[in-house]
Structure formats: C-alpha cells, structure tokens
C-alpha cells in the first residue's frame, strides 16, 4: 500500500496490485513469495523517497517518517491483511509495516518441454507454493496476498482436463501464450476455452504483441455471438480477457484503444516504456470511450438497457473513469522490463498524469480486482451479529477462525462512489464441511467501530465486485441497525 496526502491533506490509501508476475516452481524462472514481498517493499520505499526528494513534481506528498526496516513476510501476508481497507490515519502511524504491494497475480513461467505442453504439474506447484505455514504451529494457510493463475496449452490433447484442474486447485484465472505455445487465437479450441472460462467466471490473460489485440477482439466478439445465439446472455460479462503487455500492440495504434474500449477486454501495462507514458495515457483517456460499448456489433443485437445492466452488475463501470477501469498495472517480474515498476508508479502520482485519484486506484489495483472470481458463498439470511467493537485490526479474530477451520480465501469489496477504493473484504472458511463467509468492513465514522465482522453477510451472484449495487452497502448498514 502507498499512503499519501494530497494538497488538501486528504489521505489516500493507494492499494497496489501487480497483474503479471511469474512464480518460481520446479526449476522454472520466477520469484518465491518472500522475494516478491522484499522487492515490492523496496519499490514502494523508492517511490516515497523520490516524492520526498522532489515534492514539486507530484500531486501527493508523504509527511511521515519511513523507517528503514524490512517487512515481516508472514505478518504482512496473513495478519496485516486488514490494512487493505482500514482508514489511513491508523496506517500512517507505522507506514513502513505496510509499504508493499497488497496483491500479486502470479503464474508459472513457460515450460521448457517440447510442444504441445502439459502444465498440470506446474499449476499444482503454483498452488502448493501459495500455501503458507504458520510460524506458531506450522499449520497451513492460504496466502491472502497472492492470486494464483493457471496455465494451459490449447494444442495439448488434455487441455480441457488442464482447465478443469486449474478450477479444482482453486486458482483464480488463466494465462495463455499464443506465441510460445504456437496456437491460433481464432482457433475453435481457443474459443471453447474462452467459453469454459466464462462459465467459471475466470479471467484470461493473453500474451500479446504485434497487433494481436485485434485478433483477440475478434474471437471475443465471436464468443459473445455464440452466447447470444444460445440464449446465455448472463455469461457475456463473465467473459473477461486481459491483453498482457498491451503497449506492445503499439502505443499509437488506434486498433489497440478500440479493443480496450470493448467492455470485455482489458489491458495490462508491462512493456510500457517511460518515454511513452504521457502518450499512452493521453491516448487511452481520449480513445478508450464508454460510448464505444454500444458500437460492438454483437452487442447491438441487444437493447441498450440490457447491455448496461449486464456490465454494470458485473463491473460497476462509470463514464468518467471508464478508460482507467480498462487498464491495470503489471510488471512481468522477473523478466525485463520489470525494473520499470518504480518509474511508472511515480509518473501516475506526478502532475504529468492525465487522470485523477480514482484513475490511479483503478490502474494500480481495482481494475484487476474487479475481474477475480469470488470464493464467498451467499447466505440469504443476513445475520446482525457484531463480532467485534474494537477499533483495531482483527488479527486475533482471524487467527481464532483459522485455528477452528480452514480459510479458503478473501474477496475484496470494491466501491466506485464517491471514489474508487476497497472498503472491506469477505473471508471464507471451511468448517465441518460447510463454507462460512465473514464480512470485514471499515466504517469511516468515529461514532462506529472502525471494523465490524458479520457472518455470511451478502449475496455475490455475479462477482465479488458488485460495485454498482447500492443495496450492498445498504444491507451492511441495515445489518448494523443503521437504517
């Protein structure tokens, strides 16, 4: 997290997420989780140092002292997860403890075996790597900070079994590499995988370069047509495709921005060079337009009201920040140009960046988090129990739950009004064969506890990111007796 103040002394908790990294498994290239935490802790501290050094260049400042101490890896990944949605004044008391990337999407590097390739073993190792052992009793826990993706080669005879295996492992997305695995983007097998991914609400990140964006736009539109023909319009917003290395398709390429205007297509920014920052973001703000949603030929078969309902329910898009909600920070760590993380973040915080604070938060985390499928289970009976009235975080409450049950994961709750932010999270546990979900919610009012925990609080039918639904927050407030 990057905690800053603007010129009006308003605190901004910029949540940070890297949407493109490689985890070290077997002998494949990548970093282990603790190496990621050390590296990203340094990135955040370097940004703070440069802001302090040249304050006139930036819209934000860092008025606190940042001690030169390393981030405790287990503490950060397990017990300090509440900092993601806790008010800034508390965080500013010990910013060095939380100065790191909050979330990291990671998958294996390319296999070195001959084509076609079987990624099932590598995917299993990714899952195993993201299980932490408690230093107290050596008990296993899921790592909240890392979002594991699986990989597959569509040309492999067991590619569909590999996809099912990715789902069974609890991985939250899929990486496809047309150049490395030498498969055709418009092939029927690729389209079938897109359909399977939509059925499972799974995002897919493609390696792209040299104009691949147009080919991906074409196969996405063909898939949408198939959903409409099959009367499965509910699956349309669950088709979520990320253009990995989007700037490699050409910073000045109008077709790239047309593809990014598509409501199902997003762009990850690794390979964006410092000398292209201003051109890229200016072009994106001008050419990635909300109105272009209705130019998609396949969607024109539906009425405008239906189209808006589908996408607003899933993503909570708004016109003002639409362009930034289609972009996400990525580094391709540990490959070059992964060293570009610091200058890109600095540019976005500088006076040269064309967006506002909500655009920054979209790109640095929220655009990617919108796409991650939820783990939480719905419960129609909203319980009105307060689990805590403390103004502290909930490390003890979480530790107690972890001792009695197996924690499955965390689903952030996103809001886009009045500003883009993470306002809470739902933790899901497996106990006695049943899944229970608990809401941890920050309440920005001195008259209320800073955090409350509500068992099984909300319904998540489309995605954990039902940001446009006002009744979600109203249900939370009603459960606390505020209506």
What's the layout of helices and strands?
Blueprint: E1 2-6, E2 11-14, E3 17-22, H1 33-53, E4 60-61, H2 73-79, H3 88-91, E5 103-107, H4 120-129, E6 131-133, E7 140-142, E8 146-151, H5 159-168, E9 173-176, H6 178-181, H7 188-199, E10 203-207, H8 212-229, E11 240-244, H9 254-261, E12 265-268, H10 277-287, H11 304-315, E13 327-328, H12 341-349, H13 357-369, H14 395-404, E14 406-415, E15 421-431, E16 434-442, E17 451-455, H15 470-479
Parallel strand pairs: 3-5, 5-8, 8-9, 9-10, 10-11, 11-12, 12-13
Antiparallel strand pairs: 1-2, 1-4, 6-7, 14-15, 15-16, 16-17
Structure in words:
The chain has 483 residues and is an alpha/beta fold. It has two domains: 2-369, TIM Barrel (Alpha-Beta Barrel); 395-479, no CATH class. The chain is 33% helix and 18% strand. It has 15 helices and 17 strands. Helix 1 (33-53) crosses helix 12 and helix 7 crosses helix 8 (212-229).
Could you list some keywords that capture this structure?
about 475 residues; 17 strands; 8-stranded parallel beta sheet; alpha/beta
User: For the largest beta sheet, what order do the strands appear in spatially?
Assistant: 3-5-8-9-10-11-12-13
Shape: globular
Distance from N terminus to C terminus (CA atoms, Å) equals: 33 Å
Count of domains = 2
Annotated CATH homologous superfamily of the largest domain: Metal-dependent hydrolases
Number of strands: 17
- Rg: 21 Å
Share of β-strand residues: 15-25%
CATH architecture label name of the largest domain: Alpha-Beta Barrel
Quickly name the level 1 CATH class of the largest domain.
Alpha Beta
Mean pLDDT: 85
Task: Figure out the total of helices.
Answer: 15
What is the CATH topology classification name of the largest domain?
TIM Barrel
Largest sheet: 8 strands, parallel
